[in-house]
């Protein structure tokens, strides 16, 4: 990848911060979108829910990456928080896509965040990018999220949707909650443990995003998951094995539903998602196995 100027929304999040570190380490100029007045030339002011972007700050960017959005697992899904989950993604992406489309010289690529939640519960069925959206809140949210990038696509900007799986990382997401439990010897399978989890190491997530930024002919949806999804039971065993802790306590489904509410459906649900288009594009995973992904985290 040539050294370029790249704008990143969601730069303080789990994936965004890792992407910024990777880009800056290789000498790229990174512009962060911030929800306050810009403090310098490396920041751009924006208000996702208010659909405002200081588009002048995006001038000269060869790529714009949108990874912003309220945390899916941060709180119970009350009606108010579901609105925040939607607005922080759909309204923010629409504003950024419109700003990109209006630039006299648009960037070469617009990378828009998405998630494998778009497929819903797939059970044992293997799904790739050609699978249709599922039913429920998360699939409908992801569909709206991707549709919000239409202004950039219509302006002729190469647009990529990164449908991210469960990121194996210590600093946040589902694994950010799992590591402390397993270190304390309190980890265990969730429900019956037969549901598939489509995971990806944080290192590979960042590498895949950079691969898609650099791929001149790559556009549309890409699943960012390891090539072989595993069941929750298999992942629980790997966590216990790598961390040298027992995992004797399965968490019953009714308990999860009582604690997590509607989110429990996604934790207990099964998604056997494979990165068909990513592999066909020539991407190679550095940490495809679950043991090495956990060790790296």
UniProtKB/TrEMBL annotation:
Residues 251-296 form the DUF1731 domain. Residues 6-215 form the NAD-dependent epimerase/dehydratase domain. InterPro entries: DUF1731, Epimerase_deHydtase, NAD(P)-bd_dom_sf, SDR39U1. It holds the Pfam family DUF1731. Belongs to the NAD(P)-dependent epimerase/dehydratase family. SDR39U1 subfamily. NCBIfam families: yfcH. This is Epimerase.
């Amino acid at each position: 990848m040539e050294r370029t100027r790249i704008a990143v929304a969601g730069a303080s999040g789990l994936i965004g911060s890792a992407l910024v570190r990777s880009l800056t380490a290789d000498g790229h100029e990174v512009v962060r979108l911030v929800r306050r007045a810009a403090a310098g030339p490396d920041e751009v002011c924006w208000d996702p829910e208010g659909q405002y972007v200081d588009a002048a700050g995006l001038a000269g960017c060869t790529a714009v990456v949108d990874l912003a959005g309220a945390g899916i697992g941060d709180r119970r899904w009350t009606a108010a928080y579901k609105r925040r989950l939607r607005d922080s993604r759909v309204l923010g992406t629409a504003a950024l896509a419109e700003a990109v489309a209006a630039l006299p010289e648009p960037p070469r690529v617009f990378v828009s965040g998405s998630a494998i939640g778009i497929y819903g519960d797939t059970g044992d069925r293997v799904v790739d990018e050609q699978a249709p959206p599922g039913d429920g809140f998360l699939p409908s949210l992801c569909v709206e999220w991707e549709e919000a990038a239409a202004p950039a696509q219509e302006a002729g900007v190469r647009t990529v949707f990164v449908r991210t799986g469960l990121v194996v990382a210590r600093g946040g997401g589902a694994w950010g909650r799992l590591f402390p439990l397993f270190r304390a010897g309190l980890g265990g399978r969730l429900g019956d443990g037969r549901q598939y989890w489509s995971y990806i190491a944080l290192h590979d997530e960042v590498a895949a995003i950079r691969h898609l930024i650099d791929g001149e002919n790559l556009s549309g949806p890409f699943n960012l998951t390891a090539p072989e999804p595993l069941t929750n039971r298999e992942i629980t065993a790997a966590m216990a094995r790598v961390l040298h802790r027992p995992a004797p306590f399965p968490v019953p489904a009714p308990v999860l539903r009582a604690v997590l509410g509607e989110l429990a459906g996604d934790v207990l649900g099964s998604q056997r998602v494979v990165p068909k288009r990513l592999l066909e594009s020539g991407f190679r995973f550095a940490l495809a196995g679950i043991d090495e992904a956990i060790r790296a985290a």
